[in-house]
Amino acid sequence: MDHIVTEMIEHISRSHEHMARVLEAKRHVAVRMAQMVHALPDTHPDFGGMEGLMESSQAVTQSVVSYLNSIAELQETLATTIGSIMKEMEQPERDDE
Q: Which domain of life is it from (predicted)?
């Protein structure tokens, strides 16, 4: 029984590692976009008019929201996984297995 739980934990650990890599990539995109926004001049910027400014602002906002949603999903997945593992480990071992 302990062997099965150990294998589950190893598999889950690898999948969480992959999710963390995806989040890291999204974080880099969000940080880079924020750096670009910060580098823009405060006076008389030309973004292709108000429409271009709104599109750029929307793209930055969507990137940040996507990153934050990914973090929330990772936290939820971790909580669910850890909860399942804790329940499995709390169950007494049976002699017939």
A: Bacteria
